[in-house]
């Protein structure tokens, strides 16, 4: 992920003991500086409401009323933190929460989850590639409705996209399949050859499963059939950030 040098404030609520120490050590190893704090439920919610928190992880065992109060305490803030629930693998995130994190098994596991939190909070540079200017505008509008912070750019064809990826740092590409010149799969193959760290989502109006299978074989993160909606985007972004159950 590309970003300017920053630091983030991370708070844990309701997590204590040896697990808390794992989180603390994981935060110390994060990819950018993380200012770490931990609270019991009531003082944590009071601190959360002050607005100086970027990332908050709540113990999923806290009473539902406490979690609802934590969520409500952030709604009036100009810059809202990302709220995560620490719960069992496969649990669904309550409405309004950013995602679910599992209990870390060790420091490396805690480090991985802290970095997931950091990635969701920093801007993700996205390139939308489609030969239709109308469709590029529609995709950008859908992406802008995501709960994640996306820095959106576009390109009108595959070769232009590849050249931009050579020269500029991007994290994620939304790529149309049916384009003149280089089609989506040809463009995807070249992206994975030249900048393999960039994740690619293939988009198409076709109903042929062969296109999705070919895209997956070439290394696509996911596949979207048009029309699609913000909820479809967020499910793919959950997978991209590592939040999918």
Number of domains: 2
Number of strands: 10
Largest sheet: 5 strands, parallel
Classified by CATH, the class of the largest domain is Alpha Beta
* Nearest-integer average pLDDT: 92
What is the CATH fold-level name of the largest domain? Answer: Rossmann fold
The backbone outline, from C-alpha atoms, is elongated
Low-confidence stretches: none
Q: Estimate percent helicity.
A: 40-55%
CATH homologous superfamily assignment of the largest domain: Response regulator
Rg from Cα: 19 Å
Which strands sit side by side, in order, in the main sheet?
A: 2-1-3-4-5
Would you kindly provide a written description of the structure presented here, covering whatever features stand out?
The chain is of the alpha/beta class and 245 residues long. It has 2 domains: 8-121, Response regulator (Rossmann fold, 3-Layer(aba) Sandwich), CATH 3.40.50; 124-241, Rossmann fold (3-Layer(aba) Sandwich), CATH 3.40.50. Helices cover 40% and strands 21% of the residues. It has helices at residues 17-28, 41-48, 64-72, 107-121, 133-144, 158-167, 184-194, 209-217, 230-241; strands at residues 8-13, 34-39, 55-59, 82-86, 99-101, 124-129, 150-155, 172-176, 199-204, 222-225. The chain has a 5-stranded parallel β-sheet with strand order 2-1-3-4-5. A 5-stranded parallel β-sheet has the order 7-6-8-9-10, sandwiched between helices. β3, α3 (64-72) and β4 (82-86) form a beta-alpha-beta unit. α1 crosses α4 (107-121). The protein starts with 7 loop residues before the first strand and ends with a helix. The relative contact order is 0.12.
């Amino acid at each position: 992920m590309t970003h300017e040098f920053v630091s983030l404030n991370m708070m844990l609520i309701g997590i204590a003991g040896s697990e808390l120490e794992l989180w603390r050590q994981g935060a110390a190893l994060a990819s950018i500086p993380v200012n770490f704090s931990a609270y019991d439920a009531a003082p944590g919610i009071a601190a959360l409401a002050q607005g100086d928190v970027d990332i908050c992880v709540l113990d999923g065992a806290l009473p539902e009323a406490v979690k609802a109060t934590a969520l409500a305490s952030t709604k009036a803030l100009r810059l809202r933190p990302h709220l995560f629930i620490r719960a069992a693998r496969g649990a669904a995130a309550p409405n309004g929460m950013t995602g679910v994190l599992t209990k870390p098994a060790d420091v490396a596991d805690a480090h991985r989850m802290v970095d997931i939190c950091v990635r969701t909070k920093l801007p993700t540079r996205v390139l939308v590639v489609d030969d239709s200017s109308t469709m590029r505008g529609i995709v950008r509008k859908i992406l802008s409705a995501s709960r994640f912070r996306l820095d959106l750019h576009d390109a009108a064809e595959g070769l232009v996209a590849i050249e931009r990826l050579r020269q500029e740092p991007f994290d994620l590409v939304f790529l149309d399949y049916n384009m003149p010149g280089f089609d989506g799969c040809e463009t995807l193959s070249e992206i994975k050859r030249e900048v393999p760290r960039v994740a690619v989502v293939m988009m198409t109006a076709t109903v042929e499963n062969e296109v999705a299978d070919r895209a997956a074989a070439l290394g696509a993160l996911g596949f979207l059939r048009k029309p699609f909606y913000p909820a479809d985007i967020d499910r793919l972004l959950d997978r991209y950030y590592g939040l999918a159950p």
